[in-house]
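Hi everyone,

Forwarding the result from last night's run.
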Amino acid sequence: MIRYKLYQDNRKNSTTRGQWYARAAVMGVTDLETLAARIQRNCTAKKSDVMAVLTELVEVMQDELQEGRRVKLDGFGSFKIGISTTGAESPKLFTPTKNVKGVHVLFQPEVKTSADGTRVKTFLTGVKVAEYGEYDKPDEEQEQP
């Protein structure tokens, strides 16, 4: 179950100022070792073997991405590197040192199409949403500044 917390848009110049929204709440972090232990329970591979494969996967993916390739993991999704740039007046004036401001990794989860034509991201199949249990819930009666 995905939990959410409510928050209010309090940005001064926002057209939606005062409205309430939900943000997904992170319920902890699962690391590579924990994943390996869970995978070990579900198959015949030992945790150390799974760790070796996953560690190598990370290294190989880094190499492939830095060679400009998209990395597709069937049933999971695709990764590629994107860049953030500023504009130049002409192609001749564009230089990486001046106009490339950063690089980042883009992830596109795998999408399945159901019999009725609905597209669903693999990781979201069957997901349910509920409000987070104990946290400082916003008071709807609160006065707006």
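Strands lie at 2-8, 20-24, 71-73, 77-85, 100-109, 111-113, 119-121, 129-131.

Cheers,
N.
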